[in-house]
Design brief:
About 45% of the residues lie in helices and about 15% in strands. The protein is of the alpha+beta class.
């Protein structure tokens, strides 16, 4: 007499971590359960030998098949229950590979990457959110369709996006936007959208020089005597021209950051506070910066010195103001920082001092201004009138 197997296997395929099995009971039913294979673990026995042990887990589904269905309805019921058990097994297989073994969830590779990007932007809380938004807007323009799934975003696609940014934008902007996109791809890989980071081998070169416009001493003086549509913006921009502060730092500048008796400004740089060894800047206030502060109503230590609108609104006002002053340059808020550094170097201030005033952690960040100073001095020499 042939003895029946106690354990039956209903699913078995190469690469599966979970098998659907059944155990015969004494009552004529088969109890279905999931057999989880969780790999092996090695240990050392008492004799010092390495022993491998299979790690398994069993989960009984409380689904019972009739071992010998007699009627059509009983067979149909068995089939229905077995299909349900297979669905549970498939779902658990996906969950196990995603959570326990770190395999990507197949469903994530079919999601709309634009929606993923938009959700990332929605939840982004860092101060450089404007860069992320601009990067997103350019990505959407480049894709030029409403839906793109992760398998479409390979290395060639990303090289095309890089070329698009370099053709459309100038200066460090392509580098800044593409850096934010690369950070997103890295996170998307961790989230299971890509099996491997498709952007890891693609990069945008950072500009060695400065393509942003700077303001000369005469142009700064002209701005100071030209009416601006917003006095807060005018005072803050002139203050940045004399201190080298970024917009995000002057917007968050508090009275407690100022020591007027000592003519000193002490401020933690928002942009690099978590990544730089020189996060704090110490700036000696010149007569211009001090006069701007003295002309303002001093508040409490925790009060803002300048009441500034958003960067977008401030830039619009700045553009109208510079045009009104007769300055035919594409001046941005960051031009004040570039102008501060360049004019100091032009006046023969040593590069180490300028680097400290800007809060740079490395001189290489400051050296890019020296190329511009050399160019300005060359222009000045060549502007001398011809004698013959």
């Amino acid at each position: 007499m042939i003895q029946k197997k106690t354990i039956l296997t209903y699913s078995s395929a190469k690469g599966q971590k979970i098998s659907l099995r059944g155990k015969r009971t004494s009552t004529g039913y088969i109890s279905l359960y999931l057999d989880y294979y969780l790999g092996t673990e090695k240990s050392t026995d008492a004799q010092g030998k390495i022993v491998s042990k299979t790690k398994r887990h069993f989960d009984f589904l409380k689904i019972y098949l009739m071992e010998q269905p007699l009627t059509k309805d009983q067979r149909a019921r068995n089939k229905e229950l077995l299909e349900l058990a297979h669905q549970i097994r498939n779902r658990e297989e996906t969950n196990l590979k995603t959570t326990y073994f770190g395999f990507p969830d197949p469903s994530r590779r079919r999601m709309n990457f634009i929606d993923y990007y938009r959700e990332h932007l929605k939840n982004y809380t860092n101060k450089d959110i404007r860069l992320v938004k601009c990067s997103f807007d350019h990505f959407v323009n480049y894709v030029n369709k409403e839906v793109i799934i992760p398998p479409e975003i390979d290395e060639n696609f990303i090289k095309g996006f890089k070329n698009y940014l370099e053709e459309k934008l100038n200066g460090d902007t392509p580098y800044n936007y593409f850096t934010k996109f690369k950070q997103l791809c890295k996170q998307a890989t961790r989230d299971g959208l890509f099996p491997e980071d498709p952007a890891v081998n693609v990069s945008v070169s950072r500009s060695n020089g400065l393509k942003k416009e700077i303001l000369t001493f005469d142009e700064i003086k002209r701005l100071s005597t030209t009416q601006c549509g917003n006095d807060e913006i005018k005072a803050a921009f002139l203050f940045c021209l004399n201190t080298g502060l970024r917009f995000v730092d002057v917007k968050s500048l508090l009275w407690q950051n100022i020591d007027l008796p000592s003519n000193l400004l002490r401020k933690e740089q928002t942009k690099v506070r978590h990544s730089s060894t020189a996060a704090y800047v110490y700036i000696d206030l010149n007569s211009n910066a001090r006069a701007i502060l003295e002309n303002r109503k001093k508040g409490l230590r925790g009060d803002f010195i300048f009441k500034l609108p958003s960067i977008e609104s401030s830039l619009r006002t700045l553009k109208r103001w510079t045009q009104k002053a007769g300055i035919v340059k594409n001046i941005t808020w960051h031009s004040s920082r570039h102008s501060f550094a360049t004019n100091l170097l032009y006046s023969n201030t040593d590069i180490v001092t300028v680097s400290r005033l800007l809060g740079h952690s490395d001189l290489k960040h400051t050296q890019k201004y020296t190329h511009l100073v050399d160019e300005l001095k060359k222009r000045a020499v060549n502007s001398l009138p011809d004698l013959y």
